[in-house]
Amino acid sequence: xxxxxxxxxxxxxxxxxxxxxxxxxxxxxxxxxxxxxxxxxxxxxxxxxxxxxxxxxxxxxxxxxxxxxxxxxxxxxxxxxxxxxxxxxxxxxxxxxxxxxxxxxxxxxxxxxxxxxxxxxxxxxxxxxxxxxxxxxxxxxxxxxxxxxxxxxxxxxxxxxxxxxxxxxxxxxxxxxxxxxxxxxxxxxxxxxxxxxxxxxxxxxxxxxxxxxxxxxxxxxxxxxxxxxxxxxxxxxxxxxxxxxxxxxxxxxxxx
Length: 256
Hints:
The protein contains 9 helices and 7 strands, in the order αββαβαβαβααααββα. By secondary structure, it is an alpha/beta fold. A 7-stranded mixed sheet has the order 1-3-2-4-5-6-7, sandwiched between helices. Helix 3 (66-81) crosses helix 4. The longest helix has 22 residues, at 234-255. The mean pLDDT is 93.
């Protein structure tokens, strides 16, 4: 039951060579990524993480800190992560949760993904990130102004007070988690897998290079057209999914 509560998987692929575990952006649900399971190659099974306070977990209280997310995701997925190769994908807030989960998996269980795909975020220990103003404490009006300024939120959602009342608390709760997540820059890389960073070229600048400190493996940066939610655009989504599929299929040749 724990697995069904925490993970949304639209298409089971028992013969998949690898699993892609996707972490939502702040305030986001699991549907966007779960849908990837229907369009990506059957060689990859997509697991979309579903956090409390939204979708089928709407009545559950939001998590207050990163440790709660890490503990829940690992508890739900550990047996499956030992079963076959896996990769992590996270955008924005999801990049931080991907990092925190990868760190805990390595430290506590000596498990490592075959690839980590990070998107739209500076590394949590980078100066750029540490100096980012806190947004979760803003009044709703100021928060909305900021939200409109970064783009990516559908205008019809912003214009609908009822929907906003559901959406804003989840977004603020996730930002509270990430704004209070502290971690030191790794003295030595704790992973050896490849890390790929994606970003939208019109987004605010992120310190992508700082992510390199987490791995001794290959490190790649891919900049795509668009702003913060560039990955929602169909052309970019196809580029990302093709890239992910190619790398996961190729990694299996090294794995076995």
